[in-house]
Design goal:
- The protein is α+β, with helices and mostly antiparallel strands.
- It has a single domain, classed as Uncharacterised protein PF16224, DUF4883 (Dna Ligase, domain 1).
- 27% of the residues lie in helices and 31% in strands.
- The chain has helices spanning 31-34, 45-56, 112-130, and strands spanning 3-4, 14-19, 40-44, 71-77, 80-88, 93-98, 101-106.
- The longest helix has 19 residues, at 112-130.
């Protein structure tokens, strides 16, 4: 199994923004598996493409060591899950899976692309709560 970065995300048609708040998995790489029944919103079209592009352009950085992610993302091409990962803006790291490959990435959560991705995730779940 190899480790891949967000920049390698292939073409997608949809993204799910998943709330990970309150989950207590056995390890940092298990957030997305623990979130199978978590609150989520599926996004398609222009906004899905914008979130995917923000994901692909996350700037490299250094991690801390808490991993308390408020959100996870699941990227789809048609009905196929392409990639899923939990994202922590406190410790600046991502853990997940892309097929048989592991996703791990240390990013700079203070820079504009990272903040824009956080805002897009927050907005997606706020809109679903209001509906």
């Amino acid at each position: 199994m190899s480790t891949i970065a967000p920049s390698s995300l292939s073409r997608i048609d949809a993204v799910e923004v998943v709330s990970l708040r309150g989950l207590l998995p056995n390890g940092v790489s298990e957030y997305m598996a623990a979130a199978k029944d978590a609150r989520r919103v599926r996004i398609t079209g222009t906004e899905a493409q914008r979130i995917a592009e923000l994901w692909r352009t996350l700037p490299e950085g250094e991690e801390m060591r808490c991993h308390i992610p408020p959100f996870g993302l699941r990227f789809f091409a048609g009905d196929d899950l392409v990639c899923e990962a939990s994202i922590c803006w406190r410790c600046n790291n991502i853990f997940g899976q892309a097929g048989a490959d592991e996703v791990f990435f240390e990013f700079d959560g203070s820079l504009a692309p990272s903040r824009a991705l956080l805002k897009a995730c927050e907005n997606a779940l706020v809109e679903v709560a209001v509906e």
